[in-house]
Amino acid sequence: MTKTITTGVALLLLLGSTHCFSQTATDPPNPLKKARLQLMEGSRLYNPQAGLQTFQQLATEGNPEAMNGLAQIYIQGLGVPTDDVLAIEWFEKAAQNGYGKAYYNLATLYREGVSIPKDLTKAVSNFEKAAKAGDINGYARWGELVKNGLGTTRDYVLAMDIFEQGAALGNAQCIYAQGYLHYKGFGVPQDYNKALAYFRIAADKKSPIAIYMLGYCYSNGYGVTIDKEQASQYYNQAADLGFKRAELELAQPESENAEPNQIKTVSTPLAEDVENAPIEVPKKIKKVKHKIAKGDISGEYTGHLMRYDWSGQNIITTTPLKITLDQDGQALAGIWTEQEGDSLAFKATLEEKRILFNDSKIDRLNRYVEPVMKSYKFKEAKLQLLENEDDIYIVGNLQLYNIKQHENEKPMYLILERKLNDEEKEPVANPANTIVSHLVVYPNPVTSNSFKLSYELTIPTEISIRIYDFMGLLKSTQKLTTTGTGLQEQIIPFNASAGNYILNLYYNDQVIKTILIKK
């Protein structure tokens, strides 16, 4: 149990109590008003003993505002020695009498672990009670804990509902928080336009963080046309209100979205479970369907990790990678090394629909002029495996988790490549592919508007093909004609521009991939 209240928590309590003692914006009863002034150093009425006596008398008479104030006096040592036990007793008595600020103060102490053991579950409960007892600031704190899954199960839908209730009562932090969820797409479709609408309303109420976010959106073109001058104005307004991140942005030579795909990014839905993950860097992120076939993917890979904005339409950073993988059945272990970042040993489990990481953490540099490391957990990955004659590609999505902010990190796309050695290039029997084998595109590169496709068939089976470009766009689809078993050959029309393509051959629940080059 912490016995000494910190300055930061003292300020939280002062703010939570509206000048220590008053529940409403209206003037308190005269005895408490005078007693409050008597407790303030520098006041012409300063007389802490008289002020304490007034609060004690009114508290014992059942005045909940006085009970809450008396708890403040004991917890902060205003004219008396600090006494945590008495402070908690009076907060609880005031709360039991329906005084919302007392619930808020108890919740703050439980959240911070000051004067009482830290208990986030009790913090959630007391912030909820504070809100329902009329303290509108309680909505913001309650919703924040629900949003972050602290002391309760994470529930973005419930958090939005809580923020809506607080916003309806005029709480600027709740209005901003609604915009935050839309900005990042937590519990709702990602939508910069809706986020901006909430940021503007909260900014009109002088919310520093909402004003900052307006600057951030104008600087990066998120939902509005890029306007550096307008962004600077908002950053300066937020900085004047003491918001430090605004000062950091003003000092930055470049914005986050330094090389945008467009001057105004409009949020649009992204396709889910993309069948063919591109192996060239997609300008807009692809959310791929996890497809790592049974087999060994061990080896050393090199490639890049692309980090996108929350809409998935702009590449924010590109990080060179080197990864060593060691597979043992469904268990994966390896070394992850980032250029200008951290390296770590990780463990993961290969599941049917994802790769799940086991307590793996990495520190990554932020983008500011004086960068600092931020810690992330590896959460999961959805990847696809593509094998060519000389290369193996692992491509797809990686999800990191921001430890400090208690939330998922921006969307990411991973492209890894490994060169096959001579032994791996030799034909290896694969029970999953014994019905269809020896898939060949001839000629390859394709130099005309058609090519010959051949393969061995051991059992009469329906066969179809789809051809995708490296950005994952479908270019051709066709059902093939088969003639019994044995060698199958068919001319496939393919009138496409020069480039690299992926041919998928489907049969039963299986798929065989090969790379097709068009000259």
Automatic annotation (TrEMBL):
Residue intervals passing through the bilayer: none
Keyword set, alphabetical order: Signal
Residues in coiled coil: none
Record flagged with keyword Protein biosynthesis: no
Signal peptide range: 1-22
InterPro entries linked: Mitotic_Regulator (IPR052945), Secre_tail (IPR026444), Sel1-like (IPR006597), TPR-like_helical_dom_sf (IPR011990)
Keyword Signal belongs to the record: yes
PANTHER family: ACTIVATOR OF C KINASE PROTEIN 1-RELATED, CHITIN SYNTHASE REGULATORY FACTOR 2-RELATED
Protein name: Secretion system C-terminal sorting domain-containing protein
Organism: Flavobacterium faecale
